[in-house]
Amino acid sequence: MGAFNTVRSEQTCGSCGQRTAFQIQYKYGELWQYEYQIGDSIAWSTKYKKADAGKPGRPQVVVEGIAENCPHCRAEGGEFEVWLANDKIVEVRPLTDPSKFIDNNYIVLDKH
User: Fold this and answer.
1) 34: CB partners within 8 A, 6+ apart
2) Tens of pLDDT, residues 59-85
3) C-alpha separations of 99 from 16, 25, 81, 102, 106 in Å
4) Model-level pTM?
5) Domain boundaries, the chain
6) DSSP codes of every residue in 2-49
7) Coil, strand or helix at 108
8) Which residues contact 31 (CB under 8 A, 6 or more apart)?
């Protein structure tokens, strides 16, 4: 997957049914192995623009995320949507339509 960031989010494992904190990998913002929580603002590189995925300041962006294995049963964590508003992580939810990320791993919903 290369460089990515993670967001920690409480989700229910599709295999064992346990509600647990998953580390969800995604690629948006400065890609530097940052670990975020819901409510955090993401970082952007001021020096190395090639370290960035996307552009800062977008009103609403949805990013494809892949969860690490369940810490309880070790099953694959599944796919999620990481929602950002003005560079702040506002929500993580299960991915319902993987086809929307065929062309890119993020979607800008509101354009400037």
Assistant:
1) 5, 6, 42, 43
2) 999 999 999 999 999 999 899 999 999
3) 26, 18, 12, 5, 12
4) 0.92
5) 5-110
6) -S-EEEEEEEE-TTT--EEEEEEEE--EE-S--EEETTPBPP--SS-G
7) strand
8) 2, 3, 4, 5, 51, 52, 53
